Amino acid sequence: MMAVKDKKVLVVGLARSGAGAAGLLSLMGADVTVTDKRSQDDLSEIVRGLGPSVRLALGGHPEEVFTGADLIIVSPGVPLEIGPVASARSKGIPVIGELELAFQIIETAEGRGKGTEGGNPIPFLAVTGSNGKSTTTTLLDHIMRKAGFNTMLGGNIGNALTEEILKIVKSQKAKGKSDEDVSPFTFHLSHDFIVVEVSSFQLEAIDSFRPHIASILNITPDHMDRYHSMSAYREAKANIYLNQKSGDFLILNADDPGTLELYDLHFRSGKSDMPKVHFFSRTREVAGIYSKGGKVYCNIPEIACNACLIGVDEIRIKGVHNLENAMAASAMALLADCPPDAVIESLKEFGGLEHRLELVRELDGVKYINDSKGTNTGAVVKSIESFREPLVLIAGGRDKAGDFSVLRGPVSEKVKALILIGEAAAKIKDALGDLTETVTAEDLAEAVKLSRKMAGKGGVVLLSPACASFDMFRDYEDRGRQFKKLVMELEAVDA
To answer: Going edge to edge, which strands form the sheet with 391-396?
Structure first.
């Protein structure tokens, strides 16, 4: 187990993952300090949930708490290049992320799962990509549970792994065992698999994190306000297989230029101590999972799978991107010894996630779709491609240094009207405004009213912003829920 007892550990960033890490480290006997640029008043709700022994250094990043630390845990939103963190690293102070912290704790916990030869005590199934991570991870967890496996679901999906471990420790203590009997040094895990969504931010700060099966769904421009180049962003994603060995598996999108570039860079050498790569594809036959003629086929030699799995129309979640997500999740589940029947049943029943091509309602012959999680241009391209109907697209928000010109083709082909909101409205209008009728709305409420006037019967109003939400909303979920509320408040026109 990690040797943190009586060590000075600094947690940088007090969002959900930071709070989970601080609470867990405190139970492990560490001398924990948390620091955040926000004030204690802004963080009052989170601070109330911390143990009394956790020290606070809020409203800034005092240099002394960094230089005096034995170990630093950074939250995903904290770049490793910020001055205090970079300075601490230059002095030899270990810096890892919350994901790495959770991995090291889980890797050495008592009551291990089934394990894998040459793998982790409890195998990790990890999903990353620019788009589709949450849907694929949730579907994968659904498949594994359908097959009877006991899984822990967490990561970038919204519940930090340290938070999940903390819940387990507290639950075991609540069952009557003393603090001495149950601590993070002796707590019991009975899980067969850890299913985790991981972001590029989390992957920047790993050390030994090693998933038994990993998938990179796609790599398209995103977070260019944090990364100085696409190659830097791509290499951060590549860290998901940094520690994988020959007994592990990597699933890549054969139709995505970004993932194929990684394959060419890292796997053409034929080194022996590398994960086995399989692919998924909507366009061609591959070693892995592919679709052809309206059906999805399995072609995985390791599990003697070479057969038609399911018809594309039988998969409940719709859209070209969701077909890719379904194939990636299926490949991972099958390689994790999940029976094909459980995969097929899950694909037929899994209904998708809130805020991702979510049908809000159909009113007066117009469908209103909430795609608030479409926060980059790559996601919006896939969303637009999923519709045959004429679209009224609501887009805009806080720019992440995105190139909106990549939307010109899809917008010119399928978008009859463009309604722009937020800080990036002018930039998007410059890039796309000559292609279709384009208007700017003061806020989301006005955008919904305008969309109703502009959408004809048989059309679709699609909220797919291609931007972050923080200029006008708490997060993308808040944006999506406000959109749904506004849509549900619309009244039908009298016949």
So the answer is: 358-363, 366-370, 460-463, 391-396, 415-421, 437-440
Whose CA is closest to 351, among 321, 382, 316? 316
Reference 194, options 278, 104, 300; nearest CA is 104
CA angle 151, 152, 154 (to 5 degrees): 140
- 10-residue block means of pLDDT along the chain (495 residues)? 84 89 90 93 87 90 93 91 91 95 83 46 94 94 97 91 87 61 61 95 94 95 77 92 95 96 85 90 96 96 87 91 96 96 96 88 95 92 90 96 93 97 97 97 97 94 96 94 97 68
Return d(Cα 238, Cα 249) in angstroms, integer: 14
Cβ pair 9, 39 in contact under 8 A: no
Question: Residue 41 in contact with residue 93, Cβ under 8 Å?
Answer: no
H helices of 244-365, in order, are 257-266, 320-335, 340-349
Domains of the chain, CATH where assigned:
8-93 (3.40.50.720), 101-349 (3.40.1190.10), 358-488 (3.90.190.20)
Report CA Rg, the chain: 23
For residue 378, what are its two tokens? Answer: 């790559």
DSSP-assigned beta bridge partners for residue 391: 415, 460
Give the span between the Cα atoms of 35 and 18, in whole angstroms.
Answer: 9
CA distance 418 to 227: 29
Per-residue tokens: 284 = 């061609």
Q: Where are the alpha helices (DSSP H) in 336-443?
A: 340-349, 377-385, 408-414, 425-432
Q: Tell me the C-alpha to C-alpha distance, in Å, between residue 78 and each of 11, 66, 81, 219, 418.
A: 11, 14, 9, 21, 34
Q: At 249, give phi and psi (nearest 5°).
A: -130, 145
pTM of the full structure: 0.82
- Closest by CA to 191, choosing from 232, 225, 141, is 141
CA distance 294 to 415: 26
Distance CA 451, CA 24 (A): 47
Which of 398, 446, 452, 407 has its CA nearest to residue 425? Answer: 398
Contacts of 137 (CB under 8 A, 6+ apart): 127, 153, 155, 157, 195, 196, 197, 329
